[in-house]
Write a structure and sequence with these properties.
The complex is a heterodimer of chains A (84) and B (497). Chain A is an all-alpha fold and 84 residues long. Chain A contains three helices and no strands. Chain B contains 14 helices and 27 strands. Chain B folds into two domains: 4-307, 3-Layer(aba) Sandwich (Rossmann fold), CATH 3.40.50.12780; 398-496, GMP Synthetase, Chain A, domain 3 (2-Layer Sandwich). The chains are: A mainly alpha (84), B alpha/beta (497).
Chain lengths: 84, 497
């Protein structure tokens, strides 16, 4: 199972509403292309925490973990597994 | 319009070149003889009015030959007209008039072939303005600023500066009896000093664009095709309309001696279209403002005009000088700062003394007056001056000084974008959020993702807009033809609520 569609839906509805989920490549760097700005990153992390019960405050996280849709997907899988 | 040389030249032309065309309107072509006769009728009408000698009066700037005739008649009788837009709001009008000590507004109209003047009293309004000790005796004309940063200010020109401007325009654009100059701008704009008054001063022909059809591209292209102007001056929007209309009519090349673009940044894509349409024209990028008139000019041939990434401001006009001053008041020979200019065409000032004192200053060492333009420029290492935008186009995004015009410039290079306007919206969390309004080509629309990638490749990350809004229709414009940033912002924000 992956979370790619959910991640893209959140980004394109909440953080970058003018971006179409279908055009967003999974490996595109969201931070250096300005799709996710610094404060949008904070909102993304909060969403991950609330949506997937990931205790981000207890984890060592780096912006790189959220730089692409694939990385975010991996982040959820990794920490969701830990929680499970 | 109280310029002695203009009035005497009109008299001479009405006698020596009576059958020459002075003004072309949609209804008819007015000869210098007919125009002089109309002026004489307005003089008679003015004499019937009980005005105190030499008082300033407002004139409604309807774009008609009657308005021109009334302005000349007023000047001939020693009055200094303040030309105001017919659309000047009723709430703003008393405030503007009070700044200039004006209480009556005149409008000229032909009724059943008779020259008539309607007189409206405008109640004065309490104002903080302290009237300048400006010599109206020496002032041929008053104009208002656009009021984009608040209440329009009343600018008082001087006769010497208007005469100097006529002389420069005549020489630079080769104005003569055979010249035909398109008049697109409203009569209350400073552009009319060239389009209308300088042209009439040399006995040339003025071709009026009917204001109610000014955004009709087919009308504009047909008018230009039929009247064959030798000089066309306008804001980029006008040239976009002309290119649209001309391409639709299927006439891809026109012979115009001088093309003047002014008032705004001309995107490269538009310049390419213009160069293709006017391959043999001289292109002039003209920079100036109501207070200084034209102060910089950059002249190029079609090939170069279309090739620049950003059009240079050019060199200061003969007899003009400039300085660039940074935030600390230091003069800059290189780098960014605010542009201060001093031209032979400098206005006397505003009618409001305090506003004059804050915008104009005297340099005793140089024995010159300077005007603070409020425009930010960069001086390159080779001395070239590039316009960066109004100082109010600079915002701080997460502490980084960001020029909204730079972002628009980068967006305008994107193939599917016809025009862009970037603005900042205050945000409680982020400080400001950058929004981009995008007018796209009809064929296809770029995606928000591709624009972010394009911006991030060409700009600092803080300059990448966080919201893109797409428009199929032309972006709203101000009366001066510039993008109406407030209206665009309001329209987007009302959709988001």
């Amino acid at each position: 199972m992956n979370y790619i569609n959910e991640i893209k839906a959140y980004i394109c509805e909440e953080l970058a509403p003018d971006v179409n989920p279908e055009e967003l490549p999974n490996d595109c760097n969201l931070l250096t292309t300005g799709v996710i700005g610094s404060l949008a990153l904070v909102r993304l992390v909060t969403w991950l925490e609330e949506e997937y019960d990931i205790p981000t405050g207890e984890l060592e996280i780096a912006p790189e973990d959220f730089s692409t849709v694939l990385n975010i997907d991996n982040f959820i899988k990794t920490h969701a597994v830990e929680l499970a | 319009m109280k310029v002695r040389t203009l009035i005497s030249s009109l008299v001479t032309n009405s006698v020596q070149n009576e059958a020459d065309i002075a003004v072309v309107t949609d209804e008819k072509s007015w000869t210098y003889g007919e125009f002089a006769y109309l002026i004489s009728k307005y003089k008679v009408e003015l004499e019937k009015q009980d005005f105190v000698s030499q008082i300033p009066v407002a004139v409604t700037a309807r774009k008609t030959v009657d308005t021109l005739a009334l302005m000349i008649a007023l000047g001939d009788q020693g009055h200094t007209p303040l030309v105001v837009s017919p659309d000047l709001g009723a709430a703003v009008k008393p405030k503007v008039f009070s700044q200039a000590g004006i209480s009556i507004e005149l409008a000229a109209e032909s009724v059943s072939g008779n020259a008539t003047i309607s007189v409206t009293s405008v109640p004065s309004e309490d104002t903080d303005a302290e009237l300048s000790q400006i010599s109206l005796k020496d002032s041929p004309l008053m104009l208002t600023t656009s009021g984009t940063t608040g209440l329009p200010k009343v600018v008082c020109l001087s006769e010497a500066s208007v005469i100097a401007f006529f002389a420069w325009a005549k020489s630079y654009f080769d104005l003569k009896r055979s010249s035909r100059v398109l008049s697109y701008a409203p009569l209350n704009f400073d552009l009319s000093l060239l389009d209308v008054w300088a042209t009439l001063s040399v006995g040339g022909s003025v071709v009026f664009v009917e204001p109610s059809k000014a955004t009709n591209s087919n009308y504009l292209a047909t008018l230009v095709k039929e009247t064959k102007p030798t000089v066309i001056q306008g804001v980029p929007m006008m040239f976009t309309l002309l290119c649209d209309g001309n391409e639709r009519l299927g006439d891809d090349k026109l012979d115009v001696e001088h093309i003047l673009v002014t008032g705004d940044v001309t995107p490269k894509q538009l310049r390419k279209r213009m160069a293709a349409m006017y391959p043999s024209s001289k292109f002039h990028n003209v920079y100036g403002c109501t207070e200084t008139n034209d102060s910089f000019i950059h002249t190029s041939v079609a090939e170069d005009f279309s090739a620049y990434e950003q059009l240079p401001l050019g060199t200061s006009i003969e007899g003009s000088t400039f300085r660039v001053v940074d935030q600390d008041g230091e003069l800059k020979t290189q780098g960014a700062g605010e542009l201060h200019t001093s031209t032979p065409f400098l206005a006397q000032g505003y009618t409001d003394k305090q506003k004059t004192l804050s915008a104009f200053y005297w340099d005793d060492a140089e024995k010159r007056r300077y005007y603070r333009t409020g425009d930010m420029v960069t001086v390159e290492s080779d001395g070239a001056v590039l316009l960066q935008g109004r100082s109010d186009h600079i915002v701080k995004v997460r502490g980084v000084r960001t020029n909204l015009r730079d972002i628009e410039h980068v967006l305008d290079q994107f193939e599917q974008i016809e025009e862009s306007v970037v603005f900042s919206v205050p945000d409680e969390v982020e400080g400001v959020i950058l929004h981009a309004a995008i007018k796209t080509t009809k064929e296809n629309k770029p995606s928000g993702f591709s624009l972010r990638v394009h911006c991030s490749e060409n700009l600092p990350l803080t300059s990448v807009p966080q919201r893109f809004h797409f428009f199929d229709n032309p972006l709203p414009r101000t009366s001066t033809g510039k993008p109406d940033r407030k209206a665009i912002q309001n329209s987007i924000q009302s959709q988001e609520v």
